[in-house]
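Quarterly update from the structural biology core.
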Amino acid sequence: MLSIPAKISPMYERRAQVMLALAWLALHTVLFSIHGVRHTSDSESYLTYAAAILDNFHFAADYRLKYAGYPTFLALLFKIGFGLKGIVVVQTLLSGIATIYFYKATRLLAGNVFAPLLATFLLIGWYDLQMYHAFILTESLYISLLLLAFYLLVKARTVRQSLWALPLLLVVALVRPNGFIAVVAYLGYLFFGAYTAAPSPRAKVILVLPVILVPLATLLLVDQYLLQEFDIVQTYAKGEVIFGYKGLLISADKQVLMPLADASPLTKLYLFVHDNPTYFFRMSGWRFFLFWGNVKPYFSVLHNLVVVVVLYPLYFFTGAAMLKGRIRLPLRAFVAFLLLQQAFITTVTSEDPIGRFLMSVIAFVFMFGSVGLSWLLLKQAARKQHAIA
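Predicted structure, tokenized:
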């Protein structure tokens, strides 16, 4: 088995940090020189919204308010005088700052230098993630703020200290439609912090009530606000596992029954599942697999092979790190809530053609997977040293 030395000197750690920083700088210099500012169809809607904020201070009063965070960010930068290239530079610099604190958070969690070096190397080298910093899309700002907020949670030792992360998490919630999962994850953090500190079994029972109320409130928010623009069941009617991709369609073994058009989004989903259970679970199963698997039939063989060789073992080590008690339970709960919510949303809606949804949270797989792997390797190194002695 691969083995690592039990310790590494501060000098070698600093050299490794410099090499990571140079790799990050080289990557983004090349990406910016080749691609410049990158757009998708969503980019125009963000720019239009930003122009409305900048010119008339107009914020949509309906469901479009859920997009307000990123257009506000764009509007502020336009107001200062930045153009689109300047916005990409700012996004990239924010990602660099977030990467520094990602390293620090991983080091604090692992208690060793190997985990942060590996996790940061993976974060910087994962092109499918890094490319979003050049796009006029929510991903870059969302990921950077989420990593900064998590560092504050890792540093916090009390609930009061953890509140420093709350403003960032509230901004994250407004940057993109499903950003609310960060706030829900923080509520999970608070609950498990209170649960572990509860003075008696009765107090722990009382604390279980929010566990029931918070998901119900979240469902209401999703149903009445966040999904008003997106008709979930239409993707099921088309048989699309990957949004817009016709090469992988699921066919129904009988006529698909569609719910009433005037029902709320989640009511439609409930009725659809009730009337088409087999078809629904086949579709959802494929989406669940493609979300976590991250392989796509139109990716190159090399691309899919890298995903399988790197990500799949990291999932195992992420689980191992989660199950050990060496990381505080509230932090494990935060990350678990974050990952599981994103997986659930993708499973019941639609997988993105290029895996954007996993990329929004993959940094935590790199972090916890590297922590779990480092613990295993250090344990092996300690055994080997003991055997020699």
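The chain has one domain: 10-388.
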